[in-house]
Design brief:
The complex is a heterotrimer of chains A (about 1000), B (about 425) and C (about 110). By secondary structure, chain A is of the alpha+beta class. Chain A has 22 helices and 51 strands. With about 425 residues, chain B is an alpha/beta fold. Classes of the chains: A alpha+beta (about 1000), B alpha/beta (about 425), C alpha+beta (about 110). Strand 32 of chain A pairs antiparallel with strand 16 of chain B, so a sheet runs across the interface.
Chain lengths: ~1000, ~425, ~110
């Protein structure tokens, strides 16, 4: 069977290029230029899927973005699977593999369909809210079966081989849609010299002109399309984007365009080429020329394959050379739909009859059809389709649309194709993305976009604007393009438009749901939203149950929640709800559309920002050395920091024990470059420090350094670090690694908004300086080998700094200590750092210099009771809670940040959680960091928790485990016991003690 | 109230479902109520239900400016969990969790509460410490919670990239197995129907435009359709709470921000549980219809537009693709925004106010849906007695003066 | 995504370069120690949060790093002006024609 429905001639396809593809395992042929849907129809494929809820067979209905049924799985390999591709929007390529998403064992004989037939009666909207409740514990079981029926297509289970990119663009005029209005707008705007982007979702530009019967200047419309495109292509400021859907209209005229670069060629892009591109466009003006979607009529069994949109059939005939059937019946309420009759006759097929709901239609195409011998039943409509897997007949009755009544018994006519047209819905989606409400126009029986109200700088043109006659559409588009360019600051250039012979059209008649001789509830199903199996009866039921708001109706029935977002069904659903409540469509209102206009690939939104590029990686100048020396890394903010340096297959604990002992007994080296460094200069620098730190800075001499605590206004600690006085008006502040950016922003906000009178400047120098910490009793001896600085303990005492050469490079050396050992922090310009580091490593060999990482640093500082902000604190800890009252300048004249906050009632409570040390009773047991503590381990749950472990380690130097913890009133509980009840049921008992475990007098750092 | 059951459905199918009753009336407001609740979202409707059912206060009206359940109830990502860090919040959310666990039967409406498990991934050593701290606190508070290592996570969450190739490799996770999702609309409708059946008047399309006060006490609400008297008024208006407080003459420590969410097209089940990552900044679950339901953090600016900025959506999907690279070819169907009233400590305000007899229940920020039954229950108790329920007491407005905040930022799914 | 005019750079730039920092014109009390707990709490936490015209503080974080003020409508998101720190807004809720009509058009 080959292309039974392919016409002998016609269409914009390349018959010299046959393409083979498979659908549900069967191989078919199509032509280049076909959409997948066109190729399926050409091959006589009626059933493309089974419906979501009732498992009814479904066929192709439409030819574009509004298609609800032909939603297929594409992909020949696992990694290339693409779920939910609309066959009407997928270009055919050689080797395309498509499958239906539902139906078992196949879409043609689906066993679920039997269930749908039998059980369908029990599945009105919201049925699941009314059942599956008892017994309570069975819901998860019920749900398991409900979930089996979930979804359309499936996600690949392998990683996407494709790449996606993003392009930021600015333009004067973005034109949405390259149909007659959009092309005319582009010509007008482009000729003015404006920077224009013209985007269209289809494979080629032209929109309705690609399949219209009408002529421009007496020639086929496609001639003018080609001519317009050629002119636009020659304009340097005009960008043409086919296969590009403007899918979201965001604030301040920011729009996203989802462009498919290679989807028409194959399922994956050639190596190195992006599959899709997201254009992020800021447009001065937007011309919305998105056209209109034809609405079907709602009649009984209108979902049987062979029920299609009238205009879609014209598209298949004229654009693709495909006639999806033999004998056609048209049910319409308007003139324009008659084009399908003429197209069908031109294709050599038979028109059985036209049922026109109007009493006396006399439009030009109506008359032409009549003249060609077509039987037209006026005042009538198809009230019911016959057939199960394919239409076999249409029941046509006389109706009274206003009274919603069938007025004659009617007749059943044999046919295999019923096409309907209930009018045209302007594609208002983008216009309502920012909340603009569409407005109902009774004359066109459709919603047009509401005004932009200054929120959208938008001009509407063509069908979306309620302008339908081709000549008017072109003029409207041209005018819109010229206006947009003028508003963007360009001088309009006039130009002539092609002549269009005006078509005499008569008004349409309001008809949405066709009456049936049975009540809606009892008639065969009349589908409103095909993808979600929403019926007219369902909508009536919703209103009967009290769902009167349009949003309630939608949510209760799922109307419009499919991947087509109700492009075909929403207006009909609205009209049915309004009728069933006896109110007008205007009173009923409409729902808002949200992005996206059509679905967008996750990968295209994410762009290149995943994996390696998900977040910036920051490395220090010594990274290469760390890697070479086998460091394991820890993520700290964006930094990669050496965590520990395992040797000979050591695990974390063994390595850390070794590193700790090395520092305590000889000397170790740490890369501390990641600490935030802020250079602070200005005559008021010192005063500024007084205000942002809790402690006093007035008396810090040049050459000295001091530890400082920083609080927020609530008195809670948020950062700490050592700041050195480099000169009278010059300080170098260090911050925590993760807090650097936060602190700089903090300093800036206070300076700029509160104290602009202070003369002070802040510059981040984190990346400019690399820092290597030498720590341990041999650090002085080691440093002496590579520096010209006098390291004598009196000449260079603790908490001071010196300038000099280290490894031959200018350096600032700070004698400060985070380990409690004699320590020097060597700062050199980052470019020299690796060389200096290597020299120190070389010089350190005789001392068995040991590189150590953050874990060892954590252990060593904890042995000394030094806090790590963010680990030993959260945002609820004051300096007093940390027992760091010594670091609070209570008598400073200026009420520094945090002072008032830490004096609030709750911060003065005696039983606040306070930082203490813990010594497990069993010295081999290490408390888990984070473990909650109780005073009484025997109490029942919920237990009274009194704090938690913030830091906990095994100390190699001391030979026992220890921890830091916050405990309620802990500072007054020295020697008391706390208990950590663990997940495995065991309890660790510990004694509350001072948080300074090692060298409590601080002798070692002062040697 | 017409009782719902599978048998009922079967029976009604013979009459073509023509005889289902209204779920709620469309009443004309009475001149005065014992309690008027402003805001017909999940929390307000739950409050009304529990007032009538548990506390014997049946002369109650819920005044809603739009349609029932049309605010954040209709816009959230439906996650239910109670694994909060601090005692006060853990107890409040666990109270809600226990009510969730029988809610469908209690209100005879299937809210499809599905305890699929909620995972909070850890990507750094500090994440692991925080997780241990939280799980440990949960356990001792009687809230279920487990800490998993990277291997266990890999075994339990298919398709999650647990390799070292990711920017922030997964180191472990907490899991609350009783956590999960529920059908958001059904919660509002179920409570509405049950409250209506107990005599509560649900007054839709009526906007409160002011509060009438006498001697420092509220005596009713001015609406765009006239005055409605009330002995007590409870305001449960989420994102619009700041606005309502303004009408009542005071300020709240709240800022209303856009919170965005998105869904994919429906696909066959691939995500079985709720997976959240604070560090990578996104969370995901899959509905019974097959939509992947995805969310992230709030937008930085104040906004009542029920929409946010596009780059927030980009970051969210980057996080999702980073966590689940296999989902890269799946497509986003819709995105939208809600208005969340964020408080400085990421905890709600359930409190008396400077105006006597006027109570506020707000500040739920990004976490309101999961609290719906508990919030409604304790607020109903407070409105009925005129005194705050013990579980609500720590959530008084006063804490922003005394400093007794309950800082849950660390416990929120996504820091903000 | 908002388009924000930085009054220091003199250019319209995309929101990604900026951070919102909350309500503008919240001055730190000159004598914090004289504030009651309640007054200090008000300063730290209580905000106007209007549904309508709002004065906000923003920072051009990935630009000039300057803080500045924005008068913005919180429903329409329309930016009515930006101005430097220390300057007063020229558009205020009391003074400007209210954008109520627009606002109602977009709330649902």
């Amino acid at each position: 069977m080959s292309q039974v429905n392919r016409l002998a001639k016609g269409g914009r396809i390349d018959r010299s290029q046959a393409l083979s593809f498979t659908f549900n395992g069967q191989t078919y042929q199509g032509f280049a230029g076909d959409s997948l849907a066109a190729a399926l129809l050409a091959n006589g494929v009626d059933i493309v899927g089974r419906s979501f809820k009732y498992s009814r067979p479904r066929g192709i209905v439409a030819a574009g973005a509004e298609e609800p049924n032909a939603v297929l799985q594409i992909g020949s390999s696992e990694a290339a699977q693409i779920p939910n591709v609309r066959a009407t929007q997928q270009a055919l390529y050689s080797g395309l593999v498509a499958n239906s998403t539902n139906g078992w064992p196949s879409v043609n004989t689906d066993l679920m369909g039997i269930l749908g037939k039998v059980g369908g009666g029990m599945m009105p909207p919201g049925f699941y809210y009314k059942t599956f409740m008892y017994p309570q514990n069975l819901w998860m079981t019920y749900e398991k079966y409900i979930r089996k029926a979930a979804g359309l297509g499936r996600s690949p289970t392998e990683v996407d081989p494709d790449i996606y990119d993003q392009l930021n663009q600015h333009c004067d005029v973005l034109i949405v849609g390259a149909g007659p209005a959009g092309l005319a707008a582009a010509l007008a705007a482009g000729r003015s010299g404006a920077r224009v982007i013209l985007a269209d979702e289809q494979e080629e530009f032209g929109g309705s002109l690609l399949d219209t019967r009408e002529t421009l200047d007496g020639k086929p419309a496609t001639d003018w399309v080609a001519q317009a495109i050629a002119e636009l292509q020659a304009m340097p400021e005009v960008t043409l984007l086919p296969r590009a859907t403007v899918n979201g209209y965001h604030d301040h005229n920011f729009l996203t365009i989802h462009q498919r670069l290679t989807d028409h060629l194959g399922e994956t892009a050639p190596m190195g080429q992006a599959r899709q591109r997201m254009h992020r466009v800021r447009a001065k003006r937007v011309v919305l020329a998105s056209g209109a979607h034809e609405r079907p009529l709602v009649y009984a069994n209108n979902d049987v394959p062979g029920n299609m949109l009238a205009g879609a059939v014209s598209t298949y005939v004229r654009r693709y050379g495909v006639a999806p059937g033999q004998e056609l019946v048209l049910s319409t309420n308007n003139d324009y739909a008659y084009r399908v009759v003429l197209d069908w006759l031109d294709a050599g097929r038979k028109v059985v009859a036209v049922a026109d709901a109007r009493s006396n239609p006399r439009g030009a195409w109506v008359e032409e059809a009549r003249a060609r011998g077509v039987r037209i039943l006026t005042g009538s409509a198809v009230i019911e389709a016959r057939g199960s897997k394919r239409v076999t007949g249409a029941r046509i009755c006389a109706i009274d649309a206003k009274a919603h009544k069938v007025t004659s018994p009617g007749e059943v006519l044999d046919c295999d194709l019923i096409v309907s047209s209930g009018g045209y819905s302007p594609v208002v989606h983008l216009a309502s993305h920012l909340g603009g409400r569409p407005e109902w126009r009774e004359d066109i029986l459709g919603f047009v976009p509401g005004p932009g109200n200054g929120i959208q700088q938008r001009i509407d043109a063509g069908a979306v604007n309620g302008v339908f006659a081709l000549g008017d559409v072109l003029a409207n588009g041209f005018e819109a393009g010229a206006k947009a360019a003028a508003e963007a600051g360009y001088k309009a250039v006039s130009g002539s438009l092609p002549q269009v012979e005006a078509l005499h059209e008569e008004p349409m008649l309001a008809l949405f749901q066709v009456p049936h001789d049975k009540s809606t509830a009892r008639a065969p199903k009349q589908f409103v939203d095909l993808q979600n199996d929403v019926t007219a009866a369902g909508i009536e039921l919703a209103t009967r149950e009290g769902f009167e708001s349009v949003e309630h109706v939608k949510r209760y029935t799922a109307l419009g929640f499919g991947t087509d977002q109700g492009k075909l069904g929403n207006i009909n659903g609205l009209a049915i709800a309004a009728r069933s409540m006896g109110i007008s469509i205007v009173q009923m209102g409409t729902t808002m559309f949200r992005p996206n206009y059509t679905p967008v690939t996750f990968g295209a939104v994410a762009g290149r920002h995943c994996g390696e590029l998900f977040d910036a990686k920051r490395y220090t100048a010594m990274q290469a050395w760390h890697v070479k020396n086998g460091a394991e890394f820890e993520d700290v903010g964006q930094w990669k920091r050496p965590w520990y340096f395992p040797k000979n297959g050591e695990d974390l604990h063994a390595a850390v024990a070794r590193e700790c002992l090395a520092v305590r007994s000889s000397v170790g080296i740490l890369d501390a470059s990641t600490l935030g460094k802020i250079d602070i200069q200005g005559p008021d620098a010192r005063e500024f420090l007084n205000r942002v730190y809790t402690n006093a800075w007035t008396k810090l001499d040049v050459g000295k350094a001091r530890y400082g605590l920083m609080c927020k206004e609530d008195g809670m600690v948020f950062d700490d670090g050592v700041t050195a006085c480099l000169g009278d008006n010059h300080f170098l502040m260090t911050t925590t690694t993760g807090g650097a950016a936060r602190v700089l922003e903090w300093l800036e906000i206070y300076h700029q908004t509160e104290w602009p009178e202070l003369k002070v400047y802040f510059t981040s120098v984190t990346d400019h300086w690399a820092t290597m910490t030498l720590s341990g009793p041999n650090s002085r001896k080691l440093l002496a080998k590579v520096t010209d600085i006098d390291l004598d303990k009196d000449a260079f005492p603790f908490m001071s700094w010196k300038e000099g050469l280290v490894g031959g490079v200018p350096a600032r050396v700070f004698r400060i200590s985070f380990t409690g050992e004699l320590s020097y922090e060597v700062n050199v310009q980052a470019d020299y750092a690796l060389g200096v580091w290597e020299q120190i490593i070389e010089a350190g060999k005789e001392f068995d210099l040991t590189p150590y990482g953050t874990e060892t640093m954590h252990v060593l500082r904890a042995e000394k009771g030094f806090i790590i902000v963010g680990q030993d604190t959260d945002a609820s800890v004051t300096p007093d809670d940390l027992n760091m009252g010594w670091c609070v300048g209570r008598t400073k004249p200026f009420s520094w940040i945090g002072k008032r906050g830490m004096n609030r009632a709750d911060c003065l409570r005696e039983d606040r959680k306070q930082l203490v040390g813990l010594k497990p009773v069993d010295p081999n047991q290490v408390l888990p960091e984070g473990a909650q503590l109780v005073f009484d381990p025997k109490q029942s749950i919920p237990m009274q928790m009194v704090g938690h472990v913030t830091s906990s380690y095994m100390s190699a130097a001391m030979g026992y485990s220890f921890a830091m913890a916050v405990v309620k009133g802990g500072l007054k509980r020295m020697g008391e016991r706390v208990f950590a009840p663990l997940a495995d049921g065991s309890v660790i008992e510990a004694e509350i003690c001072s948080s300074v475990f090692y060298d409590p007098k601080g002798d070692r750092q002062n040697v | 109230m017409q009782r719902y059951s599978g048998f009922g459905l079967f029976k009604h199918s013979f009459s073509h479902h023509e005889n289902w009753q209204r779920m709620w009336r469309n009443p004309t407001p009475k001149p005065v109520y014992d309690v008027v609740i402003v805001g017909g979202g999940g929390h307000g409707l739950a409050t009304a239900y529990y007032l009538a059912k548990e506390f014997g206060v049946k002369n109650v009206a819920v005044v809603e400016k739009g349609w029932l359940g049309g605010g954040n109830t209709a816009r959230n990502t439906t996650i239910v969990r109670s694994n909060y860090l601090w005692d006060e919040s853990a107890q409040l959310y666990e109270h809600a969790m226990k009510l969730w666990e029988g809610l469908s039967q209690d209100i005879n409406y299937n809210v499809m509460f599905s305890q699929r498990g909620v995972y909070n991934l850890c990507h750094t050593l500090q994440d692991m410490r925080d997780a241990e701290r939280r799980v440990s606190a949960n356990r001792l508070n009687g809230v279920d919670g487990e800490l998993l290592d990277a291997k266990q996570v890999e075994a339990e969450i298919p398709y999650l990239d647990c390799s070292k190739n990711t920017r922030y490799p997964v180191m472990g996770s907490t899991v609350q197995r009783r956590g999960g999702v529920a059908r958001h609309d059904a919660v509002a409708w179920g409570y509405a129907r049950a409250a209506d059946a107990l005599g509560v008047d649900l007054i839709q399309n009526t906007e409160v435009i002011g509060f009438r006060k006498q001697n420092g006490a509220v005596i009713g609400v001015e609406t765009n359709k006239g005055f409605i008297g009330a002995k007590r008024v409870g305001v449960v208006t989420a994102g619009n709470s700041g606005h309502m407080a303004g009408l009542a003459g005071f300020r709240l420590p709240l800022e209303s921000h856009p919170l965005q969410a998105l869904v994919s097209e429906p696909i066959k089940p691939i995500i079985d549980s709720v997976i959240m990552s604070n560090a990578v900044h996104g969370y995901i679950s899959q509905s019974d219809k097959g939509d992947l339901v995805i969310g992230a953090g709030i937008d930085g600016y104040n906004g009542y537009g029920q929409r946010g900025s596009y780059h927030t959506i980009e970051h969210t999907l980057q996080a999702i693709v980073e966590m689940f690279p296999v989902l890269s070819r799946v497509r986003m169907n819709r995105q939208w925004g809600g208005i969340v009233d964020t408080s400085p400590d990421a905890c709600p305000i359930i409190s008396k106010t400077p105006v006597d007899n006027l109570f506020f229940n707000c500040g739920w920020g990004t976490g309101g849906f999961k609290a719906t039954p508990g919030s409604g229950h304790v607020f109903a108790a407070s409105l009925a007695k005129g005194e705050m329920h013990p579980l609500a007491k720590p959530f008084s407005i006063d804490r922003f003066h005394t400093g007794a905040l309950i800082d849950e930022h660390g416990a929120a799914a996504v820091a903000h | 995504m908002l388009h924000i005019f930085c009054p220091y750079c003199g250019e319209l730039r995309s929101e990604e370069e900026f951070h919102a920092k909350g309500q503008a014109h919240i001055a730190r009390p000159l004598d914090p120690d004289a504030c009651s707990d309640a007054e200090w709490g008000e300063y730290m936490f209580f905000r106007d949060n209007p549904r309508g015209i709002h004065h906000e503080l923003w920072v051009h974080a990935a630009g000039c790093r300057k803080y500045f003020n924005v008068t913005r409508h919180t429903v329409t998101y329309e930016i009515l002006e930006t101005y430097k720190v220390g300057e007063k807004p020229s558009v205020t809720a009391a003074g400007a024609p209210d954008k109520q009509v627009v606002a109602e058009g977009v709330t649902a």
